[in-house]
Amino acid sequence: RHQAAAAAAASHTGALAGSDAVYDAAFRRAGLVRVNGLEQLFSAAETLARARPHVHRGGDERVMILTNGGGFGVLATDALLDAGGVMAALGEETRSALDRVLPATWSRANPIDIIGDANGARYQATLDVLLAERDVDIVLALNCPTGVASPAEAAEGVIRAWQGRKGPRGATSAPNLLACWLSAAEGEAARGRLGAAGIPAFDTIAGAVAGCAELAEFARNQRAMLRVPDAREMPYVDREAASQVIRAARAAGRDAWPRRFVRMWDR
Asked: What pLDDT shows up at residue 266?
């Protein structure tokens, strides 16, 4: 992405490198998600293999965070906003529905803190409400070990809610669900169970938030790909001037453009 790295790549493989901004624009227009490292590569694979962005809803992917630890929820909120994510609003009807199934001490805001003793039944009851929400696109369910509740049992409650989800127009219109289970003792098994149920599962906040961001980016870029520009929006291109620039560069021994690009302008 940077000039020094591009030079190293060219000397190592003979690959051609161009302006990074051009690649960004081309990838967006082609409906692709771009990742900037191996961790993001694996989080994108984990997320997009299991979740389906709501391409036709339009707007930003609104995220509701569910957690059994207040500090964990705050860290996830900061990370999501740092990544350009959008927090979903907690409406009065949803708040009233959650009042009926949660202890009086729950946070009553997004992130939804369902308290450290939350068991599988409490996770399930909360998600039954959130996965039926029309104004939420992604639910991020978090679990940190507390010593008073089982992470494995909490994961089973999440799975039951996911399997019984009912969106505004059926299960396929329900919000996407991602999970982050931090437990060292039971976390690996819980994440395996969540993944097998079709729920992208992570062991770090960074990975989970990257998954949310990649879902949002994919939805935006897919909408851009489907959009056909109006002819009046197409910029004027002076083909002769561009051809002269390319011919001069070739005469000077420059080889920074792919051959097919040069041939196109030489026609």
From this structure: 47
* 8-state DSSP, 56: G
Name the packing angle between helices 187-196 and 151-163 (round to 10°). 10
3-state class of 155 per DSSP?
Answer: helix
Q: What phi, psi does 6 have (nearest 5°)? A: -65, -40
Instruction: Give pLDDT tens digits for 91-132.
Output: 999 999 999 999 999 999 999 999 999 999 999 999 999 999
What number of other Cβ atoms are within 10 A of residue 95's Cβ? 16
CA distance 66 to 44: 21
CB-hemisphere CA count at 13 Å for 109?
5
CA atoms within a 13 Å half-sphere pointing along the CA-CB vector of 174: 22
CA 109 to chain centre: 22
With vertex at residue 220, the alpha carbon angle to CA 3 and CA 45, rounded to the nearest 5 degrees, is 70
Residue with tokens 């569910």: 66
- The overall longest dimension of the chain from CA atoms, in Å, is 76
Task: Residue 131: count other Cβ atoms within 10 Å of its Cβ.
Answer: 21
Closest residue by Cα to residue 185 from 158, 146, 157: 146
User: Where would I find the beta strands (DSSP E) of 90-209?
Assistant: 112-113, 138-143, 176-181, 201-202
Task: Say what the alpha-carbon torsion angle 121, 125, 127, 128 is, to the nearest 10 degrees.
Answer: 130
Calculate Rg over the CA atoms of the chain: 23
What is the rounded distance in angstroms from the CA atom of residue 219 to the CA atom of residue 31? 8
Angle between helices 205-226 and 38-48 (to 10 degrees): 70
